[in-house]
Batch of 2 targets.
Target 1
Amino acid sequence: MAATRLVLLVALVATSAWELPPSLRMATAAQAVEQAAAAVAIHALRPLVGSAGDLGRRGGVSCDSWRLAVEAHNKRDWRTVPADCEGYVGHYMLGGHYRRDSRVVVDEAIAYAEGLKLGGGGKEVWVFDIDETSLSNLPYYATHGFGTKPYNATSFNEYVVEGSAPALPETQRLFRKLIALGIKPVFLTGRTEDQRAITVANLRRQGYSGWDKLLLKPVGFKATAIAYKSGERRKLQDAGYVIVGNIGDQWSDILGAPEGARTFKLPDPMYYIG
Ligand SMILES: *[C@@H]1O[C@H](CO)[C@@H](O)[C@H](O)[C@H]1NC(C)=O
Ligand SMILES: [Mg+2]
């Protein structure tokens, strides 16, 4: 089969190169044979070598392609990580890749913040999401399939009220830098008002201090995350604050006017909040 295709390719290249002088024609045909042989070899090797993304597939989509589609917001409203991608997401989250990707985001955010000319009135704020942005629920997700299982509000809230979620170190670096620059952090979270005390305790335990506001969702408030969060940002703006930056792990953290002068998306391949 491969040999037949090779002959066909050589024939095609040879006929398309008919305008070239004979010596060049020969070289082109010889090169084509070489390239085709290399291409066949690479193609044949690929399934044997594999890659992280090829370890898990569903519907022919590799897990790294799936993750890219999630981060780029091409994939939306998904409920669970594909079952075959549990290992892939687990390795991504725990193996250093997640931290490295987060570091790039925060490096950009800090470079941007350092370049800002502040008005001096102390009105500049930076909006921080909490879950998977300021605090990590990875201890929970690591024991619940890294997002491959449907969201369970009961067990997740049991974890939240422990108040033991670790800080995300890259985000914390940004948080401290902003305070040093005179930009006030404002937490804006989908966590509800009844979780205020445990959230404050968790944040403090993890070394966060000096935030200007902690905005939580009223209990029973029914709205999409985009409507709720953009509404809260609107209130901030109407109260005279200038939202110079906004960082979150969900697209719903950073979509919906007013978004903030610049938005930053942290990685999160484990869940989607619409
Ligand atoms: C959700 O979590 C609770 C508490 O751990 C558990 O009792 C319940 O069975 C879980 N529900 C499902 C559907 O797994
Ligand atoms: Mg979040």
Target 2
Amino acid sequence: MLFTPVAVAVLAFVMCPGGSMAAAIHSRDGSAPAATYDFIIVGGGTAGLAFATRLGQKLPAAKILVLEAGPAPPANEPGISIPGLKGSTLFGPYDWKFLTTPQEKINGRVIGQSRGRVLGGSTALNFMVWDRAAKAEYDAWEDIGNHGWAWGTMLKYMLKVENYVKTSSSIVFGLNKGVGTGGPIQTTVDRIQPPQQLPFIPTMNNLGIPTNLESLNGNPMGAVYQPSNIRASNYTRSWAPEYLWIAGSNIHIVTDATVQKVNLQRTSKGQQATGVTLQDGTVYTATKEVVLSAGTFQSPQILEATGIGQTALLTSAGIKPILNLPGVGENLQDHIYVSVAYRLKPGFTSFDSLTTNATYAAEQMALYQSGQPSAFDYNGSNFAFLNWNQILGTDAFMLRLAALAALPTSPVDQTKLSFLTNPAIKAGIPQVEVLFADGYTGTKGYPAAGSPAYGNQYITLLGILQHSFSKGSVHIDPSSPSAPSPPIIDPNYLAKDYDSQAMIQIVKYLRKIAKTAPLKNILVGEYEPGPAVLTDAQILSYVKDTVSTLWHPIGTCAMLPKDKNGVVDCNLKVYGTTNLRVVDASIIPVQISAHIQTAVYGIAERAAELISNGYS
Ligand SMILES: Cc1cc2nc3c(=O)[nH]c(=O)nc-3n(C[C@H](O)[C@H](O)[C@H](O)COP(=O)(O)OP(=O)(O)OC[C@H]3O[C@@H](n4cnc5c(N)ncnc54)[C@H](O)[C@@H]3O)c2cc1C
């Protein structure tokens, strides 16, 4: 082994208080602790670390290697650990910094698609919202052809992930059901509820939206308080590397190791994964399985670089086709949002002051560092999950557009249509999420320094479409197919009228919220888009100029029957292979009405049980 004991010890300390973790983390310097493992996991992100840890616990004699392209970050990296600095790491050193192709229906705009390139993956960058969708949405995964993946199973595994901590100040938040304890990821509801956030839930109530205090238990509908993946003991981010704190010594992690492809060998039972090849040509051998946990954009990239995907595409990239699997990289779905921003009346101090008022920011940082409540604790905890009837009074208009948008041959589209039409479930499935954001988080920008409006305080209401009918793709770049080159990401935003009309209706509804008491009583006026944007045409134009991603891409290695463009079966095995699996967000077949990390962790927990059962 070429890793010095010092390097190993330093990295272990970085990742674990006291450095007592059993799993060994090695920075790649040309070699690895061994060349052969039982299991090789590609990607030390959300799913990869959760899966590796649980697999190692269930199979203590198995040797497990995790290969992560990014580095292990230093201890307490502020941009990662301090909730109030969320977002500051985007397009920084821990980000793959992906971009979409120019999106035709939004004026050719290119949208940033941040993804974690660091041990911990996208949980290092994410915005820490911790929630779940409606029961019927997980049940749909089973109904679409995936035996064993309904709500009951998913909830069981999602609960293993977390340790929800109720603080003395959180009695009002409910959350007595549908939350887990004893898991490695710490969750809690913000201890800070800023004065400007307090009117949000009463305002939703005045619009006829009831408060729901148990929104993580299969019914997210209503105005809700939700937790964040934040540790209540010191208000730092709790994220995927914390799984390693409970991992055994049979887990080896190698960082700075970019996998280019899986090595396959043909057998009578199908293609067998024998290991992986790194960017520098190093080969690691797997005696049992190779598992891709490289995320929605890069698990399909690795499959294609291996020769698994659409034959014509592979040929055009000079890759020898091994398995023709047309679904690889298709079925890309993403949550999109639009926002409206309002100036607060004098007397309110919003999150904006952390960036515009150095004295205030320093005071808040001093409070944070001394363990006192501080704006740097805050992540946001007020949301509303709504259906079209609640937003529009009738869903007839949206149903007509949905019927036009849904392809009869697409089980994914038909599932989304059933979320809107099936009388047994439609009232309980959110189509829109409203997110209350303290401070300005819009698109045109905070007023410039030196301008009279600099120093103004804002709130922003974000409206997120939960089930869009536009679907896109991610594929290798034929001129440079393998990682670390970026894949070609085309989400096809607003390709369907349903989606663009939905965004118009969402803007109108966000404005309605802002015009309703008690929220309206604390607002001076609309900052963005502003009063000049009035007609549907003007709102659509605003949407096209500003709509963006909530960073929830899924579906590109979909768990679906093979004849329905599936990539993996319900055991997460790639069709046509004997021992190659995918375990990450890419296997989620249909969008859910939630921020997706709880589902991704839950998939990893379930995968560890499924796969270990085959070896114990
Ligand atoms: C900015 C942002 C905000 C978000 N906010 C929220 C939120 O508030 N709440 C929520 O629930 N969800 C949120 N999400 C989404 C959520 O974090 C992700 O969906 C989830 O973490 C994805 O997990 P994953 O395991 O699929 O991929 P990742 O966690 O991204 O892990 C993939 C890993 O594979 C590695 N990798 C990739 N290619 C290779 C290769 N060739 N060789 C070796 N390693 C490789 C990557 O470096 C990465 O570490 C957010 C995401 C982002 C980016």
